[in-house]
Structure formats: C-alpha cells, structure tokens
Amino acid sequence: MNNQNKQETLTRKEQWKLLKRLVWYVKDLKWLLIISIGFLLIATMTDLVRPTIIKDIIDKYILSGQTDMKMIIILACYYLGISLVSSIFRYLYVYNFYAIGNRITQTIRYELFEKLQGMGMRYFDKTPAGSIVSRVTNDTDSIQEMLVSVISVVFSSTIMVISVLIAMFIFNRTLALISLLFVPIAVLVVFIYQKKSTRSYQRARSELSALNTKLAESIAGMGIIQIFNQQKRLINEFKVTNDNYYDARMANLKLDGLLLYPIIHLLTSLTIATILLYFGIQSLSATISAGLVLMFVDYVYMLYDPLFMIMDRLAIFQQAIVSSSRVFTIMDHQEVAPIQHDLKEAVVSKGKIEFKDVTFSYDGRNDVLKNISFTVNPGETVALVGHTGSGKSSIINVMMRFYEFYQGDVLIDGYSVKDFNIDQLRETMSLVLQDPFIYYGTIKDNIRLLNQEISDEEIIEALKFVQADTFIEELPNTYDHQVAERGASFSSGQKQLLAFARTLVTNPKILILDEATANIDTETEHLIQESLTRLKKGRTTIAIAHRLSTIKDAHQILVLNQGEIVERGNHDELIKLEGLYYQMYQLQQLSD
C-alpha cells in the first residue's frame, strides 16, 4: 500500500528522473540513434518542400493563366519523388527507433529477471506472484511502447515544429506570428493533462496488477477452489476486480476525450481561421497569393499535428512512467539474497554441521528459532520433529542460505555457511521437499536439470537405484517420456521418486529431507526406504520427519517446540523420557 501511494503522488521531478534513467539505456545504442535522427532530418526537410511545390504550381501556372503542362507534370513528378523519399527515410527512422526500443526493453526485462533471481526469499514471501509477473510482462511492455511510440514521436515532432516555424518565418513573418498565437494554449493543455493523468494511470496499472494477481492465484489454486465449491465466490471477486479495472480505464478515456482530441483540433481550426481572416482583410487592399494561403494552411497542420501526436501519446507516456517506477522499485529493492564472503579455503569436504546459538526471525520481530545449537557429524542422520510452526523448516532455510540470520552461526566443516561460495555450497547439499517440483520436459531433463555433465547412463542408474524404473519403463518413450506441467500425470509417490533420483545423481555430501515421505503411500514408502538407507550412507543427513516411524534409526532426534529444542536423543532415549516425542509417537501409533 505504501508503494502504491508513493507512485500515485509522483512529482514531475521524480517522473523526469525515471525518464532519464530509461534514456540512460540508449548509451550502448547511441550510433544507431544518431543514424536514426539523420534519417528523420532528411524526411522532415522533404516534407517542408512539398507545400512550396504546390504553391508554385498554383501561383505560377494555374492562377497566372500561363499553363505549361510539361512544367506542371515535372513539378507533380517532383512532388511524388519528394514524397517517396520522405516515406523511405521516415520508414528507416521508425524502424531503427523500434529496434532501439525493443533492444532496451529486452535489456530491462533481462535485468529485472536477473534481479529477481538474486532476491531474498523474504521478498517473495511478501509479494504476490501475479504482481511480479505483471511487472516483468505488462510493465516492461508499457516501457517498450513508450520507447518506440512516444520517444520517437517526441523526436520527430520537435524537429518538425522547429523546422515548420523556421520555414514560416522565412516566407511570412506576420503569418508565422499568427500561427504561434495559440501554441501557448496547447502547451498549457499538455501540462494540465500530464498532471491530471498521472494518478489516473497509476490507478489503472494498480488495478491491472490486482487483476493479474487474482487470475494467477485462481489458476494455481483451481483444485482447492473446485473441491470446496468456491467457484461462485471467486467469480464474484474477479468481477469486482475486473469492474474496478474497467472503471479506471474509463476514467482514463474520459480524460483523453476531454483534453486530447477536441482541444488540439479546436486550436488548429482557430489558427487556420485567423490566417484566413488575415488574408481576407489583406485581399481588400492588395492582391494575395492563393498558393501562399494553401502553403500556410498546410504548415499549420504540420505545426499542430505534432502537438496532437505528442498529446495523443501522453497517455502511453504516463502508463510507462508508472510502469518504470514499478520496475525500478524492484531493481532498487534491497532485500537481496544473503551475501556470501566466498572464501577460497571454505570447501565442504566431510559434511560436519554445527548450529551454534542460532536465533532467527522472518519479520525481524518474532523469533521462529531461539538459541538453536546441535552438531551432526559426518555420515550421521539427525531428525527434526515437532508440531507445525515449531521451526523445523526454518532450520533448513537458514542452513541453505535462503534467509539471512544475524544471531549465532551455522558451520560446515568448521567454516560459517556465510563464507562459502553459494554455488559450491548448494552443489554439495541436496534438498528433497515434501512436494517436489516437476518441470515440463522429459524425465531425463527433470533429473539432469540442464547439467550437461550428467550422462544418460548416470540418470538411468539413479532412477533404478531409487526403483523409479518400475513405473518409468511402462511409459511411452520410457526415460524420454514427456512430463506434463508440474508432473500432473504422476502420483505424489512417483514424483517423489524422481526427486530422489535428481538428488542422487548430483552425489551430495549433505542430504536434507523436508518431510520427503509425507505424501508417499505405504507401498511406495516401503519401496524407497531401502534406497534411502543406501542413499544416506556416507552422507550427513538432516531429515524433517512427519512419520516418526521412519526416523527410528536416526543417530539423534531433535524435538522442537515454538522455535526451541526441548528434547534431544535417539528414539529409545526419547521414548523412555516420556515427553513431547513420546506423546507424538503414541498418537501416531494409535492412528495407524
């Protein structure tokens, strides 16, 4: 809400600052820009010549009575030739400017996506996915439209206005001054429109972002929506959001309809009427040039049409300024991923893990981990158990460097996790989640994850090791079988087997299981328990356990409650203690 309010009250200084930041991207394309402006100058000069040809045809050959068809045909061909040259060079100018705009937008979108990849998990916890998608797609599209449609028009319109005024003063200073009478009014309208449209377009962009967020959430949660018969409620909520966006767009259209088209057309008509009135008065006492009249009428249109084009594109400009503010807000966001010191000597060799008095909070106010201390020796398995919200996953989040922590330390082989190169650290760890993410692609692609150093033979061996071959070899194309999005055609157990194979093929020194068998049926669990036992041999393992029966053989079990370790020991020791672990185990035994 705060960001939105800030964007709604963007000052003119802030808007120009954003515009200059966008223009900064042109620095690598300056020669293409210079060439484009050269094309524009040629096109503009040829446009200014055309009215003079018409003037000569009318004054020298039509009205004078000295009809020279050969000369008229020559001038007409000359006029067509000039028009053709103008069209060619204007096309080259527009084409190059579109190329510049597309290249800049491509760069901004890449930088934005790159920034998102390095953002801390806290940002994604607080920001709806639909809103992020809207910034990467809709907002960058608005910037692109401004660069190719607004900046190009501003360049061409500015050059045209200056050139027309010079031509006017050369031919008739009085008529030039008359043509300038209403220009200040047009400029004033531009400033009024720019001021009023900022908030209007910010509201429209915010409503569009809300629309995208609502749509993305509805699609992602379609299963839950249908299971609980929430379709009607979601439809009504979407209707409200859609109506709000419609109202915002209609407010924009009303503003455009009032200040854009009518006023510029009115000012053009007033200028032409004044010029005709002047010529009418002059004709009472002297002979006037009809060709000059037509030439100046043509020049008046050339003078005001660029102003109209600029006004017409101010709407796009306002959208783009608002969009660029939203995009640069992400780029300037400081919630980056935890920073690593990248010490060369920090290497995971054995896999010994030590938590030393770690206290951690997601929001900076409420601690979810409180003075956590424990040690996992190389090759040992430590299990984390506790009720929902006790802090089990937070321990994993801290160790994997998804979130920064500021109290205590986590050591691996004697080095703080902050000292490792993040890529090297995560290559030696492997995390298997409760709900594994399966990508669209083949089964081999899902195991390899673009690591071309992993051979097909290693993939097949890993899949057979976790006994996933039992269902894969029944599929069409077996290991090259095309997986549906998110692995929709596979059961939870089958997806988990693929996740285990994905873990195994990287040969990690530290294995992290985040309730990895929670969604697996009893038969599938029985199939992979033996594989898990072999997988854990020689590896340090931290397992978050939902089913306590699966961690009986753990070297140490840590029982967490409200962010604190309240019990520790092996299975038999904790059963004898008859504390929280004993109560949880007895409840599961009864439910089984």
Topology, please?
Blueprint: H1 2-8, H2 12-23, H3 30-62, H4 69-117, H5 121-126, H6 129-171, H7 173-179, H8 183-220, H9 222-227, H10 231-259, H11 261-283, H12 290-331, E1 353-361, E2 367-376, E3 381-386, H13 392-399, E4 407-412, E5 415-416, H14 422-427, E6 429-432, E7 441-442, H15 443-448, H16 456-465, H17 469-472, E8 482-483, H18 492-504, E9 510-514, H19 522-536, E10 540-544, E11 556-561, E12 564-569, H20 571-577, H21 580-591
Parallel strand pairs: 3-10, 3-11, 6-9, 9-10
Antiparallel strand pairs: 1-2, 1-4, 4-5, 7-8, 11-12
Helix pairs in contact: 2-12, 3-4, 3-6, 3-12, 4-6, 4-12, 6-7, 6-8, 6-12, 8-10, 8-12, 10-11, 11-12, 16-18, 18-19
Q: Mean pLDDT, nearest integer?
A: 78
How many structural domains are formed by the residues?
2
Tell me which CATH architecture of the largest domain applies here: Up-down Bundle
Helix content: 55-70%
In percent terms, what proportion of residues is strand?
Answer: 5-15%
State the separation between the terminal residues, measured CA to CA. Answer: 48 Å
Which strand order spans the largest sheet, edge to edge or round the barrel? 6-9-10-3-11-12
Q: Give the strand tally.
A: 12
**Strand-pairing-aware structural class:** alpha/beta
Highest-level CATH class of the largest domain: Mainly Alpha
Residue windows where pLDDT falls under 50 for at least 5 positions: 1-8
Rounded radius of gyration (Å): 35 Å
- Determine the CATH superfamily of the largest domain: ABC transporter type 1, transmembrane domain
How would a crystallographer describe the biggest sheet?
A: 6 strands, mixed
What is the number of helical segments per DSSP (H or I, 4+ residues)?
21
**Backbone shape:** elongated
The CATH topology of the largest domain turns out to be ABC transporter transmembrane region fold
